[in-house]
């Protein structure tokens, strides 16, 4: 992928708080083969869990999967690190490591 397309993909993925939560949760997994339960592992209590699940399944996870950042098994309700997660990992790490300097609602 060309650099410009990578940046567009990274920015699009990071453009929504729910997607940022999924990506940061994946970043924090102890093992790259681990998976998250969705919506349970990304629910922050600020939204109805059913609405969050609908948004994840119909919007956020398909976008992240298409970008290659996640592996998603909708039947099992599990999300793991995708083949192209390495493209976004440095940006996520930078943002996460400096989260104290970012607006409170970044994740």
TrEMBL record:
Pfam families: DUF7344. Residues 40-79 form the DUF7344 domain. It comes from the Archaea. This is DUF7344 domain-containing protein. InterPro entries: DUF7344, WH-like_DNA-bd_sf.
